[in-house]
Carboxylic ester hydrolase (Rhizorhabdus wittichii), 507 residues
Amino acid sequence: MGLDGTEDGQETVMADAIADTTAGTVRGISEGGVRRFLGIPYAAAPVRARRFAAPEPAEPWEGVRDATRPGPNAPQRVKDFPGLDVAPLIGTGWVHGDEYLSANVWAPDGGGGGRPVMVWIHGGGFVIGSKDAAVSDGSAFARDGIVCFAINYRLGVDGFLPIPGVPTNLGLRDIIAALRWVRANAAAFGGDPDAITVFGESAGAMAIANLIASPLAEGLFRRAIIQSGHAGMTREIAVMQRLVKKLAKLLRISPDKAGFESVPLDALLDAVETVSQRTAKIDLRDSGGREPMFGIGRFTPVHGDDVLPLQPLDALRQGAGAGVEVLIGTNAEEMNLYLVPTGVRDKIGGLLATFLLSRSQPQARKVLKAYGLGQRDMPAGQALTDAMNDLVFRWPARRFAEEHRGRTHMYQFDWRSPAFRGELGACHGLELPFVFDTLATAAGPQGLVGTAPPQELADHTHRIWAGFARDGGLPWAPFDRDKRLVYSLVDGLARPEPVMPAQAFLP
């Protein structure tokens, strides 16, 4: 297969594709063996009286609805990233419109049903992202006989801020509504509603990890793939209401539903940008002095409501989600995405590294010493980066694998990007074009994968994901606390992994 995702020499012919959903008939496009439907509402538009309400079913329509254009996405503001083109990974920013609680579908052409289903949940720190990001085109999965969905959900203030008078975790409630819609409509696209695999990256993976522990999502999916995510980044409602008050003060409104409803969306996005800066004075640490997002984001799901009655790890210990088969993993050098292009890794000194980490971790100095700070050949910025790779992503993912009572397999993506003179390495988000077999979208002089990414690794990675969605099969043994097998996607071998130094500093 070529970098454009089509078979070499394959000619494509476009034709209409029709499907009957629970709300009405949609018309998409059939091309290259794939039927593509874009922007189908799975819930009513979250505007006006429905803006801060739980999702409601999409309103039925008459006739045939056009589903050939992606449509709007959640209000957001995307900034340029130094030296990298990240638009293929997160989308191009806010596409205005009301009906943004919507789904894309890629389905195999031709007749037949009962096919496995995959549902993609995009990342973006719970404040940005889109189902329409170029990297997450599901055509390759459809060519493999899988019906692939991708969804939008509410973000930022509308989705993940526990405003008094507003249902909590609206973004998670949207995803639950989308999964119910997928179950009700999978057969219309040739899918099996009892063979659903959810998969997501970063914030999308965090959402999935949380929903595995949620009583409201029980029975909605059979398998889950958690890419660079885990269940450790939730906060107590009381802690997140500090953010409610901070934003209300910035906006000069009352810290309640009426106050936030009165603010124009652009002003709201301005305030989100302000509180998202690392210099913003807001303390979101828990009673133990830990900040689960480590400063890389302010908006998170909360626990202590009907969506997440318990912190998810506690729920997993009690057997929540034991019936879900899980593939979970991380990239080898996640934090390089945040610390290499910005120059922080190479410029920061020991005192500043300790101060920055202390805002999230009460034993910051001990952590950095455990990762080599003070040793002759260990720069402070590298010690901070190595520590945060494990604290923020790698160790919490292993903790999820330890606590989940169902079958759980662990992978690591360890191919190193040549970007930034090879220093970007196996950073956050790098696996995405390999998973979707969409290398061309992220290639180029400023592309995340450089100019000559290995197609054979994309073939292998995509095959692993598709095989797991079909029947749960994987070519290595499950993870457990003793053997701790982690599968390298680069060399195709599963090895026992030692416990990380981070283990001593996280619950």
